[in-house]
Fold:
Amino acid sequence: MEILDRYLNFIRLLLPRAKQQDIIAELSEDLRGQMADQEAELGRPLNQAEIEAVLKRCGHPLMVAARYQSQQALIGVPFYPLYIFALKLVQWVLFPLLLVVGVAVALFRVHPFLNMAGAIGDAIASALYMVGLITVIFIVLERLQVKLSFLDDWKPSELPKLPVVPDQKLIPRSDSIGGFIGCAAFLSWWTGILHIPQTPKLEFLNPIPADFFWPVLALFAAEMALHAVNLFLPWWTRRRAAVRVLFDVCALALSVALMRVWPWFAFTLQGVSPDKLAQVEQIVNLTLYLCVLGTGLGYGIRLLQDMRRALGKAPFANPLVSWFGGAQSR
Amino acid sequence: MGTDAFENLRLELRRGSLILAVLAELRQEQYGYTLRKALGQHGLAIDEGTLYPLLRRLETQGLLQSQWREEDKRNKRFYQLSPEGIQILEQLSAEWHAINSSLDQIL
Structure:
């Protein structure tokens, strides 16, 4: 019966000390009873395989011992929905807030790239710490079996009035976060806060006219603000859609104005023949022209979608159109 | 997938019924192994890993009482319904009959 003893000893180790003796004695009695019955039936002692079969049927020691634990779940039913709600707050409020503030502060430091990476790391670490802390708090509440009186003592009429938002009006939070970070990155480059290292021999002769500086800055700052609002109030209202119609029209006008002063760049590159240089200029300018054209087209489609939202109509459901014009559902 | 869903629902359906069956069987004093055999003979097989924790829970709730005693040269733990367990069994039996008759009408 060495296998049986080994099996029972394994279970014993996993049981609460106060109950070990009692549980093992009872389980041992049952298993020995089963084996004795089988032996009587077969008229001979059980071989090792037959003993193992009995133990296997009883279950793995981990599973057997687990069934004797008084607490079967780390966080039980009354606390679980609250726990998930707290985690969602971390995911959608605390983490974006830490990220945005951290990145914004990093942009004004001496080494923005390095500081930005640090800020992102800090935001992730802080969010994870918070998740850990919340988990520990809820485990303790579960262990202490704290009674949540508000679950029994509540009135339907006192529930908060939350807006009923149809799917087509919902703004995915990923869109708002991505948009906000994208605008912040572009603006920091546009204003020169973020310095992108350039090839030493490359020199721009004809930079984009200074007239575009303030309109582009204003447009992207406004877009950034709208993304921030959308993050915390993630559904379209007619007024907010109308505001974005204005942004779309401005962006379209800027794209057209920018295309009218094309080509934008001319280079001086030491050690490169004029023919080669002309070729490089053409490729760079044409690529950027196509980028601005694509952006303008994107804004055109977005304008169409936003006009429909502003008029209280559902945006077009075509996947390509909705990708350009902002996804229409989660 | 369908088999898994059926198995989960079957286990859920059995769980409550098994408690009632265990309580009913323990109107007469029995130890764990004979109780398991008796339930198995009635078509309600229950493994030891489920039965003993259940017996412990019911005892903690005051529905069962138990004592260790030697029988056939082996120490065994005998269980029996407590006075409170007898009352609860009566109430649960009535509830079971009501559910059963309702289900009979629905099914």
